[in-house]
Amino acid sequence: MNAPRPRTLARAPLPSDPRSFIAFGGELGAEIERITEAAVAAGRWRTPEDIHITKAALPLAYWTYKSWNPIVRAMPGSGIEARLEPFRRTRFDLTPDGFEPMSERSMSLSGDLMCTKGLDDAQDRFYEEVSDLIFGVDIAYANLESTLTAGEIAATTFTEDETPKINLTPRQYQTIIGHRGRRFDVVQLANNHILDCGEEGIRTTIAQLRADGVEQVGVNETETDAMRPRITEIAGLRIGWVAHTFSVNFKPFPADKPWIVNMTPMHLMPDPDVSGIEAQVRACREAGCDLVFVSLHWGLEFELYPHPDQLRWAHRFAEAGADAVIGHHPHVAQPVEIYRPESDPSRTVPILYSLGNLTSLISHPSNVASLVAHLRLSTGMLGGMRRTLVTGLELTPVALLAEKGQTGSTLKLFPATVLLEGSGDEATDVYLSEVAGYIDVVIGDGWRAR
Description:
By secondary structure, this protein is an alpha/beta fold. It has 10 helices and 19 strands. The protein has one domain (about 80-400): 4-Layer Sandwich (Purple Acid Phosphatase, chain A, domain 2). Strands 1, 3, 4, 5, 9, 10, 17, 18 and 19 form a 9-stranded mixed beta sheet that branches. The protein has a 6-stranded mixed beta sheet with strand order 11-12-13-14-16-15, with helices on one face. Strands 2-6 form a two-stranded parallel ribbon. It is globular and about 65 Å long.
């Protein structure tokens, strides 16, 4: 057998946290600084606070502080840590008693894909360590967080007047959409950056995806599309998608197209109305879908546990008929939950609160660790009826790192087990250990033995 190829790992050459592109000035910047100093002096923000997302100074101060001090505990008094503790592992057999499988398909689920510095020079190398994990399946899904544009690529800055734009160059897009001829089958476009370049960015992105044979969910090209279930037929399965974002970063919808992006204002206000998501789930069921996936861009950034409201909402979607709830946006991975709906106990619903970043804008150790989830989709007989069910879940942590070579370094994704190999450099080894520690918070330490 050939000896393993030696490699030299390093921290990805990215900003360590968002402070490098945050430029809050004037009275707002001073107020954010005052709020932050007071919160830290009082010992706050070590655990989550229930702060709705607005453009006011308090939520901006809270967001900024968390971006370089991620919160690793759940909301005090919520009981979430105890509730999710049984699911801090990597493998789950979800096959119901009495189920007789006839066929199986596999599906990979990945988190946010963004315009990470270094992707331009990494095509067909970026995924080479994890290509089978992500693309060696019947269906591959991810959230495409950045749009393409026919205009100029704007710098990523966060000011009192402008939320950051994260737009892909064509070369970055080609790097992240696939590897050596294999591509994602489905990407979500309903996320908070979809309107960074307005309607032009949406149309440019959809046109490129269509040319590459990649389905998109969450964006509607016509008003009629917005009113009917989004259904794809892939790998012989009829899959209904209910894909929503909590926000579009306060950017305006096109005046004549308020329906262009599926948006439900979770986290923006108390008690938002999520019944529209439930209605879309039921519409997919009524349309005869084999499976229904609720895919949500939601959650609070830089927090390693979901907000209590998310558990309530996810359970409602499962009771309405969702076969899985797929989450992204917090830029960190979060624990999963396995939920058995009272409305149909034969289904066991994986709830993936946040898969994390597959690519990242920063190199903070919490931001470069993410999860690739594998679902086993089985068609068979249960109680004399033909059913298609999610019968298995496996979680594989991955890490965004740089690999040094003779001609420089390459940005790459690695299975997280490489974090345990060390690099020979003391500072880098400390960093790799920190990345591994964040993974332990989410799924326990069982992955270390694989």
